[in-house]
Amino acid sequence: MHEFRSVALDDRAGALVILDQTRLPGEVVYLRLSRLEDIWEAIKNLRVRGAPAIGIAAAYGIYLAVRNSGVGAPEEAVALFKHAKQYLETSRPTAVNLFWALNRMEERLAAASRAESRSASSSASVGNLFSALKEEADSIRDEDARMCRAIGGHGLSLLQRGWGLLTHCNAGALATSEFGTALAPIYLGDQRGYHFRVFADETRPLLQGARLTAWELSEAGVDVTLICDNMAATVMKKGLVQAVLVGCDRVAANGDTANKIGTLGVAILAKRYGIPFYVLGPSSTIDLACPNGASIAIEERPGDEITTKWYASPLAPEHIKTFNPAFDVTDAPLITAIITENGIARPPFERSLAEFAR
Ligand code: MRU
Description:
With 358 residues, the protein is an alpha/beta fold. The protein contains eleven helices and 14 strands. Helices cover 41% and strands 15% of the residues. The model has no long low-confidence stretch (mean pLDDT 95). Helix 2 (51-67) runs antiparallel to helix 3 and helix 5 (122-156) crosses helix 6. It is globular and about 65 Å long. It folds into two domains: 7-142, Up-down Bundle (Four Helix Bundle (Hemerythrin (Met), subunit A)), CATH 1.20.120.420; 151-357, Translation initiation factor eif-2b, domain 2 (Rossmann fold, 3-Layer(aba) Sandwich). The structure holds 5-S-methyl-1-O-phosphono-5-thio-D-ribulose (MRU). 5-S-methyl-1-O-phosphono-5-thio-D-ribulose (MRU) is lined by residues 46, 49-52, 95, 169, 171, 175-176, 181, 208, 247-249, 259-260, 326.
């Protein structure tokens, strides 16, 4: 498998180490981030991205914010944590894993503080709060790695040898602790000689498919073909695609699924051509508090991502009006199944997701 890790902790140096995904595929550059503002910036500007990786980065980020602050008393640590949590929550609104991971860290801190307030020495106790936060962040990362493997196994059970598979955006090793979600069955199948042929949508405007999916699959020796987003219909119509595999940023209780902008169009095409459309993600991406897609906040990003960002010269007139939603919501009836580490949820999703969510 890959040598790289999208996100890791260097505890001794007090730094979050991220593979800067904005520099791929041209350069493999690791950033070492110790300041909370830099971790926020890395999430906001997609240096670390993909729902599970964002959650892991936030968990380690908030641990480091508290630990690196030099606070000496438990109450100070708790106050600083609250401030850092509110701040990190403003980085990106759509992926629920960010909020899920931070809430989990908060619960762990609260439990550790309760335990410490019953004990005597305050100098020992702040160290115990740091340890509790680190342990929780490590668990979030380790669980993610296990969940990705399990998702790979469940996903592979739906696929056949030699199939053509289409994916959108990047839901691979770069977007998680390792292995990926939508790409997990592809990696597992590759290890088992399934010989899949993968079509990667380039994924305008930020080109996660071209820059990231095409890179990580080809680095792993998987047969991958890059297509422009507007070519998905053609490869489907030609019979080159037997299943679509995509990740997710937030799955509502009724199965409506937010994922990278363009996913909805792919799902509509898959329905038209009778191709199964599978959503793959950890159960932490299911948000039962969201009744349906209409209640999912969709991040809107700057227009220069459409007009200028990745291009040597502007692609559009300087002052052109733009609309740049970063995600869309695929309506549940377009989804064949939602695959988590706990198994394969099928419609009606109201019932199956409630069983599969944590
Ligand atoms: O804006 P991004 O690159 O963070 O969007 C990522 C996606 O839409 C992924 O498909 C999703 O987060 C799942 S990653 C396993």
